[in-house]
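Hi all, long-time lurker, first post. I run a small reading group and we've been trying to get comfortable going from sequence to structure in the token notation. Rather than ask abstract questions, I figured I'd post a concrete chain and ask someone more experienced to write out its structure so we can walk through it together at our next meeting. Sequence below, copied exactly:
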Amino acid sequence: MPQKKRKVFIPPKKQPPRPDVGAETFGRPAPLSINLTALEGRSGLSVGDRVKILGTGLYAGEIAIIERIAGGVVPAVGVRTEAGRTRTVRTIDVEPVGRAEA
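-- Answer (accepted) --
Happy to help. Here is the structure in token form:
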């Protein structure tokens, strides 16, 4: 007589604990802000221009050369710093640098 095939056991999905109805709901620790002027970008930039990286991000304050320009929802440029490092930066986060400032 053939043996019965055993039923495969699949454990139930784990549910996260439900918050109490009377408890305070937890929100984000810091509000998100979106700079809508980034959508417009900065005009007058071209490949080979020397620019200064603005803001507080990586390589902020360094002089760089534009290697490529990427269009899109938020225009960006690919730059190479004087130290040889590359980065993609929004066009509003760079400003053209004259020969006197370099």
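A couple of things your group might point at:
The first strand starts at residue 50 and ends at 53.
The chain has a mean pLDDT of 82.
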